[in-house]
Write a structure and sequence with these properties.
about 300 residues
């Protein structure tokens, strides 16, 4: 983040290496972050949340989003379903619900609708878009424009489609995904639980969180300095998550296939086999998507694909 800010304003070596257009793009990104932060603070203020609580929650939120983006970049993980993945819940148990007044707790609960599941944070997908566009020779402004247009269209048509589906099938029935009902109830239930059962800061969990961060830091440093080191910090982070449990067989199959390819043909065969492996992954996703589309148009019941 500091590198981006330095690049935007031409500070240090990071800024000196960029041309004028890249520096303008970085400067625009910084201003957009500031504008978005002010808008977020104004929104939370309308909910009745104090500025300090808003800052705590969204600092944690963006740290989680950046972590997910880093996991995607280094490990290629498409699904990051982890424990304690709610930034607002983390802040409350870390500081203790007794440390917040009623207004702030109610306002925090009202944020549950989009903070309940960090799997849907868009930063990892945006990072992939920027990387793909960069490899294809597109300018960052072109990619940003496409992402903004797609986001606006997705919000509009997504809201319409979900509303129509819930209306036609019944929002509280087993025919639709129940997340909307769960988050709606939780937005009211969580503040009630915090107020009726006030808690103090959970120092043990905070200590374990700090210990986990220290282990990841050590693994990262050792991996950077010891070439043969086999343990990756991404593996430690993802081991105790839904992705680590649900796809453990997939990981071992991929590890076994990669080991055989490297032993049989070395790095050259490994690179030659990458398009085939990527094709398998994209083919799996395409097949699931097409089945869902055809079933929707034909009115057939199908399983919900999540892999």
């Amino acid at each position: 983040l500091w590198s981006m800010i330095s690049s935007a304003f031409g500070w240090g070596t990071a800024g000196a290496e960029l041309d004028a257009e890249s520096r303008r793009t970085a400067r625009l990104a910084v201003f957009l972050v500031l504008a978005g932060s002010l808008g977020t603070a104004a929104f939370c203020g309308q909910l009745g949340m104090s500025l300090s609580v808003c800052a705590m929650i969204f600092v944690v939120y963006f740290l989680m989003a950046i972590t997910l983006a880093r996991l995607r970049a280094e490990g290629g993980l498409a699904w990051a379903f982890g424990p304690d993945r709610s930034p607002h819940n983390f802040v409350v148990w870390a500081a203790g619900s007794s440390g917040f007044d009623r207004q702030n707790l109610v306002a925090i609960g009202m944020l549950h609708w989009f903070m309940a599941d960090m799997r849907f944070a868009t930063l990892p997908s945006h990072l992939e878009s920027l990387k793909t566009g960069d490899e294809g020779g597109l300018r960052p402004t072109q990619i940003a424009t496409a992402v903004i247009v797609a986001t606006i269209a997705a919000v509009i048509f997504g809201c319409i489609a979900v509303t129509m589906a819930y209306h036609d099938l019944g929002a509280s029935t087993a025919k639709v995904y129940g997340a909307a009902m769960w988050t709606s109830r939780s937005s009211a239930q969580m503040p009630i639980n915090w107020l009726t059962n006030p808690t103090n800061p959970d120092w043990f969990r905070l200590g374990m969180t700090g210990l986990g961060g220290a282990i990841v830091t050590v693994l990262h440093i050792v991996r950077q300095r010891v070439l043969w080191w086999p343990l990756h910090p991404v593996g430690f982070v993802m081991a105790n998550t839904g992705a680590g449990v649900s796809f453990v067989l997939h990981y071992f199959l991929a590890w076994g296939a990669k080991t055989i390819v490297l032993k049989a043909g070395g790095n050259r065969l490994y690179r030659q086999s990458l398009p085939f492996v990527i094709g398998l992954i994209l083919g799996d996703i395409t097949t699931q998507t097409l089945w869902s589309l055809v079933a929707t148009l034909a009115g057939w019941p199908v399983y919900q694909f999540i892999s």
